[in-house]
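note to self — DONT lose this again. spent like an hour looking for the file last time. sequence + predicted structure for the chain T wanted, 341 res
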Amino acid sequence: MERREFILASSGYALSALGLPDMDSITRRTRTALPGAVRVGQGEVTSVRHMVKALGDSASELGGGHARHLAVRYLTQDVARWLEGRFTEATGRDLFAATSQLVHLAGWMAQDEGDTPELRGLAQHYYAHSFRLAAEAGDPELSATALRGLAVQCVDLGHRAEAVQLGEACVEHGRHLDNPRAVAYYEATLANAAAQDNDHRMAIKHLALSETAIGKPSAAPGDSWAAHYSPGRWAHECGMILSRLGDLDAAEEHLNLALETHGLDRRRTRAIVLADLGGVRLRQGDVDGAMATWRDFLDCADGIRSVRVQAALQDMRVRLRRYSGVPEAQELRMLAAHIEA
């Protein structure tokens, strides 16, 4: 998707528009449900939350391409009729919040499944709709998380100004949350956008704010996306920001920390961290260390349907071309080609 197409596609979801959800939507629905509408209670809300967890766990392990159709089917065939059902205002807010998480997951799955204009557009649509649902539910954490999804998509597409703007909005929405992990999540998002925008000062500032937040004691993890932003996930994101800023030694240190603290919990996660660490080591001139790390990456990558893993495989193959006289490098390139196929 070209820059102009992205902006045109998102014109209805510009920050000014995103900031104007229908705040009376749930209250109005409690008074205007159609006769015969299904009655919805906390059981349905719990069902949505359980499905978000189950589908999210699967996607984290095997990539967004494995289960997106299941998430979309559940959303359109089950959850959609509950949103049009009969419920109290309290249940409605819980239902909208849970649905926001499901829609956000569908967006993340689409973004992780492939790098095509259709999938990018789907992800953008889902993130924007997740924001609206979260705002109407009165949940600032889920609202900020949806904005983060849009910001990360802009970073991935190279839309630097939009990424910074969305990152700032994400931080603003989460500013008053009593959840250090969520604050760290959003500050790191803005730091990443600033680093891509070559704003070293802003990147360092918000990276430091993120580090301060992640170091604070956190309450028991909740079910939201941000609540699962562990110190290990922070270390991975921080490492890649530092790499973008040119501090390769600090980047390597943080990526090793990510592997030690959380990289073993999901195969997709571990694969991406290993791929990133191999790239940092190659930039440091440690060719042997890079190839050893990339061999571990290939062991994890087989069977994962993730655009990030596929991009890492291609990147590794390209970077190893210069070592045509090194047998191990050529072996790694052939293994990567086999996995990609």
